[in-house]
Design a protein that fits this description.
- The structure is a single chain.
- This protein is an all-beta fold.
- It is about 0% helix and about 50% strand.
- It contains no helices and eleven strands.
- The strands form two sheets. Strands 2, 4, 5, 6, 9, 10 and 11 form a seven-stranded mixed β-sheet that branches.
- β5 (about 45-50) and β6 form a beta hairpin.
Length: about 120
């Protein structure tokens, strides 16, 4: 079955950086667009960024554009999110998933979520 494991979150001061890592098993990773989502208590999960299967096309939500960079290593079945110039508003649980539609309407294609990794940005 599909398994997704996110890591790399933590507590950081505003202006700092973090690198999130997502490893995926149970699928042919290189065939799937992948994305990062985030969620805060009481709010819906939102798409942050996604990347096509080959890694040549990316999408970023306006709120993170210019600060976050998504990338993937298809040989290692791994997805990354480099987060810079972090703001308190970036505080959330971050999840990765296969996506349908790498755009503002991105959604979880296979319906599988990992446990997420918590990012907390202090002011």
């Amino acid at each position: 079955q599909v398994q997704v494991v996110e890591s790399g979150g933590g507590l950081v001061q505003a202006g700092g950086s973090l690198k999130l890592v997502c490893t995926v098993s149970g699928i042919t990773f290189r065939n799937f667009p992948m994305g990062w989502f985030r969620q805060t208590p009481g709010k819906e999960r939102e798409g942050v960024s996604c990347i096509n299967s080959g890694g040549s096309t990316t999408y970023y939500a306006d709120s993170v554009k210019g600060r976050f960079t998504i990338s993937r290593d298809n040989a290692e079945n791994t997805l990354y999110l480099n987060m810079g110039s972090l703001k308190p508003d970036d505080t959330a649980m971050y999840y990765c998933a296969t996506v349908a539609g790498c755009n503002a309407q991105m959604r979880n294609l296979l319906g599988v979520w990992g446990q997420g990794t918590q990012v907390t940005v202090s002011s």
